[in-house]
Automatic annotation (TrEMBL):
The keyword Endoplasmic reticulum does not apply. It comes from Theropithecus gelada (Gelada baboon). SUPFAM superfamilies: alpha/beta-Hydrolases. It is found in: Mitochondrion. This is Palmitoyl-protein thioesterase ABHD10, mitochondrial. Its main location: mitochondrion.
Amino acid sequence: MAVARLAAVAAWVPYRSWGWAAAPVGPHRGLGALLALIPQRAPRWLPACRQKTSLSFLNRPDLPNLAYKKLKGKSPGIIFIPGYLSYMNGTKALAIEEFCKSLGHACIRFDYSGVGSSDGNSEESTLGKWRKDVLSIIDDLADGPQILVGSSLGGWLMLHAAIARPEKVVALIGVATAADTLVTKFNQLSVEDSGRKNCISLHSA
């Protein structure tokens, strides 16, 4: 099953301010084990198991509107951050949502600007702009503490978001996080390429 495979490769990093010990991850540990360790901030309930998420849009006056789907549930919530040009309807995103439904936890999945159902032009996208997308989701849609699940390039954006919003992010789960690959590729660019408008942006635009 997709969730079982995902749990087997996931790794999470708690924040010091919460004082939790790191949990080893293996075939029998993962997101479920992490959620079990986190103190509940709401009574256990399971109505979310049969909920259906509908397409919504986050309106941003000076930035492209973001398409998202939000599943209501208990805290902490889960935000899935997809990989490069990946959609919120991908296999991993749907598996995460189904897993959250089974436990009654809140979940948000979304499309980056210029990708999928969101507004914007993918040819004008940079990591800086997508970083702002992730922060918009955290700031404007997420309720309470959140666990970020970043896949591939989304793992790099997950790390940036966690640094920018330490008060809201309680744990990280990286799925084939592409941070090392991204930095290597960036360092291999020539001086001319690194200064171009459409080059990879490591920081906020």
